[in-house]
Specification:
heterodimer, A: 314 residues, mainly alpha, two-stranded antiparallel sheet, 3% strand, globular, B: 343 residues, 68% helix, 1% strand
Chain lengths: 314, 343
């Protein structure tokens, strides 16, 4: 019998390269995406700026007001100038950056959890669960986000106590903003996850899992969900940019994070009134927001190309 | 086709009903409308109680929703606020076209919103026309010179434009075109309002005041659309019929603008149709920065004062516009592309 089999080992040797997983292939493709790599570098620099900057400026300095020094142009003492009540803008962009990035990331965590939950349940169970959840999703998608955000900001933002974490005092509105951004942005992700579940649940491995008596929850979260990670990661990355923008929009409109806690968004509030006399008021925080959003968009774009399961090229 | 439209319209009704319910529940808790009414502070508790009864704010949420939706002219309401319902209600409800009266200005919502709609529409239509026109030009240009230095440069630039927050665009453009231009002695653009009150509401005044808000609204959409047009153009230019047209010896201009563009432009209709109502979202920020008296600013001013009838009225108008535009887009697309049949 063995004498008749052709020499298979030789043949496989010719094929040489072992099969790559999606993640390995993704990394190989991502490395080639120059813009995405640039995005990662800028993001690391921005993180270093807002967390490393604490070495040079304490939070007291960021909130220290000196009205005799109001609206000072950039100088050696105040490299980014001072604001309307004499606070140092460089120090505030450092601490504001922490809050803006924190809001961006945590609200996307909430968004992702909600989106996965709604999408997975709707896609897996179908029927009335699907109809109900998708009607809610559609209803929320039909209102431009900024309207929802403003209504929600008023809804939750009535009386918020200040909170103290690790010796630093934060305005409670940070938590409110995180929650409302998360609660108004999960709809797209839910749709993506639902679509993935609709096709994945028809696969044999789901049938096999069911045949061996696996519970529905285990099938959803352990068997199907890991197969949807690639589109979820892409969508969530891009959402961080949107969340930072949303925070900036509502804070810019005065309904977001309340002072003394600085964010890049609320530093821009009322800067329009000093457009002529103090352009540094909006330039520095605005540029930082733009840089962050831009580099996250580049990163997300790179991830989208890298993690596309249909693409076979390395 | 007719049956399809009817079906879609009927599907839209429960959706809108659902939206109104969610928003109404949210709006019920956005704060105390009495606290900020008409700029006065009402301190005496008995006055507050009386006002609440007069405005019907003491009723359960579901009753308030029913009044808002279907009116209260079939029941008696407490007009003088003494706790005894005495007079027949006068509200007709949103279903019969009565959006209620503003709690802040006491004017009917239809009047308040009605005088703002044209101002916002001017901005939106102008922004959309400018966006499509320039996006088409740039999209075609980059598609015909794929991977050239210019194409790569524009790709990067558009990525930046796409990531720009609206407020950043507006502040930067105000700074350059109004303040720096003024400083340099160049003709500069106005930044505030719709017209100079000393000159009056003339066409040229409105036009010059429109430039910066329209520019601001267009930038992010321009970036997205021109990328999109570049993509569809590239796809169409590789089709067999375009090759045929080229090999017949047709002038390049004719191949690009007549044969290719016709088919490349079709998918844009979908994007534009679905985006159009969402431009209103951008209008909230833009109108506030440029003090443009439109619906976005009306919304912002009244949401800050918890004025439920006005806020609900605007939100429902937007929702209806979104639903209608979705249907219109589908119908228009089927009309443009005879391969699509909805039956």
């Amino acid at each position: 019998m063995t004498a008749h089999t052709p020499s298979i080992p030789q043949l496989t040797d010719d094929l040489s390269t072992p099969p790559l997983t999606l993640w390995q292939m993704g990394w190989l493709r991502f490395r080639r995406h120059k813009m995405a790599l640039a995005g990662v570098v800028i993001l690391i620099l921005l993180l270093a700026f807002s967390f490393g900057g604490t070495v040079f400026y304490s939070e007291k300095e960021a909130n220290f007001t000196d009205t005799s020094l109001r609206l000072q142009p950039p100088s050696v003492q105040h490299p980014f100038g001072t604001d309307t009540i004499g606070r140092d803008i460089l120090a505030r962009t450092i601490y504001g950056g922490q809050i803006s990035l924190f809001i961006g990331i945590i609200s996307v965590v909430i968004e992702t959890l909600l989106g996965i939950l709604v999408g997975a349940l709707a896609g897996y169970y179908g029927g009335w669960v699907d109809s109900l959840l998708m009607r809610i999703t559609e209803a929320l998608l039909n209102i431009p986000t900024i309207f929802l955000l403003l209504v929600m900001a008023k809804f939750f933002g009535n009386e918020i106590p200040e909170i103290e974490i690790g010796g630093r005092v934060f305005s409670g509105s940070v938590i409110v903003i995180v929650v409302i951004i998360g609660a108004t942005s999960w709809m797209y992700l839910a749709r993506i996850v639902r679509a993935e579940f609709l096709s994945l649940k028809e696969n044999e491995f789901v049938l096999a899992a069911r045949a061996t008596g696996t519970s529905n929850m285990q099938i959803i979260f352990l068997h199907i969900l890991p197969n949807t990670f690639a589109p979820i990661i892409v969508s969530s990355t891009l959402s961080v940019a949107n969340a930072i923008l949303s925070e900036a929009y509502i804070s810019f409109l005065g309904l977001g994070v309340q002072p003394p806690t600085a964010t890049w968004g609320n530093m821009l509030d009322s800067s329009a009134n000093y457009l002529d006399s103090a352009p540094w008021l909006w330039f520095f925080p605005g540029m930082l927001i733009l840089l962050t959003v831009l580099s996250i968009n580049f990163l997300g774009d790179g991830l989208r190309d890298a993690l596309d399961p249909r693409s076979r090229t390395v | 086709m007719f049956r399809y439209v009817i079906k879609r319209l009927l599907e839209g009704i429960p959706l809108l009903f659902f939206i109104s319910l969610i928003l109404f529940l949210l709006m019920m808790n956005v704060g105390d409308p009495i606290a900020t009414m008409g700029g006065r502070t009402i301190t005496r508790p008995e006055d507050r109680e009386r006002l609440k009864r007069q405005l019907g704010l003491d009723k359960p949420i579901i009753v308030q929703y029913a009044y808002w939706l279907a009116g209260n002219d079939w029941t008696t309401v407490d007009v003088d606020g003494d706790g005894v319902p005495d007079k027949q209600g006068t509200r007709k409800g949103i279903l019969r076209g009565d959006f209620g009266t503003s709690l802040v200005t006491k004017k009917p919502v239809t009047e308040l919103v009605g005088e703002r709609i044209p101002n916002t529409l001017i901005l939106m239509v102008a922004a959309e026309v400018v966006t499509i026109l320039f996006a088409m030009l740039l999209g075609i240009y980059s598609a015909l010179r794929q991977y050239s230095a210019m194409d790569n440069f524009m790709t990067t630039l558009l990525f930046v434009a796409y990531s720009m927050p609206i407020f950043f665009v507006s502040l930067a453009s105000m700074y350059v075109f109004a303040i720096l231009f003024k400083r340099w002695g160049l003709p500069y653009l106005p930044t505030v309002g719709m017209f100079d009150p000393q000159v009056g509401k003339t066409a040229s005044q409105i036009l010059s005041h429109m430039v910066l808000p329209v520019f601001t609204l267009s930038v992010p959409y321009f970036a997205a659309y021109s990328r999109y047009i570049r993509g569809t153009m590239l796809e169409v230019m590789n089709q067999d019929y375009v090759r045929t047209a080229k090999s017949k010896g047709l002038p390049r201009r004719q191949v690009v603008y007549i044969h290719a563009l016709k088919n490349a432009a079709m998918p844009i209709v979908t994007v534009v149709g679905l985006d159009l109502p969402f431009l209103l979202g951008g209008a909230v920020v833009t109108e506030r920065i440029f003090a443009w008296p439109g619906m976005g600013r009306l919304f912002f001013d009244h949401v800050s004062r918890s004025d439920l009838p006005v806020v609900m009225g605007i939100l429902m108008l937007v929702a209806v516009a979104v639903v209608l535009f979705q249907i219109l887009t589908d119908v228009f697309y089927a009309w443009l592309d005879p391969r699509i049949r909805y039956d």
